[in-house]
Amino acid sequence: MRFLRSFTLLAMFTLASSACVAQMVGVVITPDGYEVGGVKWKLATPAVDEVVRQGPTRVLILVCTHTPPAKIIQFQTELEARYKAPVQLASWEKACPDKGSQVRHWDNRERSQAG
């Protein structure tokens, strides 16, 4: 009986603490589009719809370094117009597509031959 009470108390404490933890949603913006929760879109509006649907307390925007600033501004403007949550912007090189017309990766061999 004492074990059952302890277990119930622990379960209630766990639920209460998880409700207090701030929910954060990550958005990845690349030159190709927008990604929220593993789903990708070419346009900003569906990505903003998904962020609003999730209702986070914070939004983290990870941006590829080669993303045009207009794409980032469009997403931020739409998000701010529809949802009020603190937004944090960070550059993330891993968000960049490996192959694409806007990105050119050089390895040491190519640099030494070009130079």
Could you describe the 3D structure shown?
The structure is a single chain. With 115 residues, the chain is α/β, with parallel strands linked by helices. The chain has four helices and five strands, in the order H-E-E-E-H-E-H-E-H. It has helices at residues 2-20, 44-54, 69-82, 108-114, and strands spanning 24-30, 33-36, 39-41, 58-63, 87-91. A five-stranded mixed beta sheet has the order 3-2-1-4-5, covered by helices on one side. Helix 2 packs across helix 3. The radius of gyration is 21 Å and the shape is globular. The termini are far apart. 15% of the residues are buried.
Topology:
Blueprint (H helix, E strand, L loop, with lengths): L1 H19 L3 E7 L2 E4 L2 E3 L2 H11 L3 E6 L5 H14 L4 E5 L16 H7 L1
Parallel strand pairs: 1-4, 4-5
Antiparallel strand pairs: 1-2, 2-3
Helix pairs in contact: 2-3
Question: What's this model, at a glance?
Answer:
By secondary structure, the protein is of the alpha/beta class. 44% of the residues lie in helices and 22% in strands. A hairpin with a 2-residue loop joins strand 1 and strand 2.
Q: Report the average pLDDT across residues.
A: 76
Low-confidence stretches: 3-11, 15-20, 99-115
* Strands ordered across the widest β-sheet: 3-2-1-4-5
Order of helix and strand elements from N to C terminus: HEEEHEHEH
Structure classification: alpha/beta
The count of helical stretches stands at 4
Number of strands: 5
Helix content: 40-55%
Rounded to an integer in angstroms, the radius of gyration calculated over CA atoms is 21 Å
Q: What kind of sheet is the major sheet?
A: 5 strands, mixed
Report the portion of residues in β strands. Answer: 15-25%
Using the alpha-carbon principal axes, give the shape: globular
- Terminal-residue CA separation: 77 Å
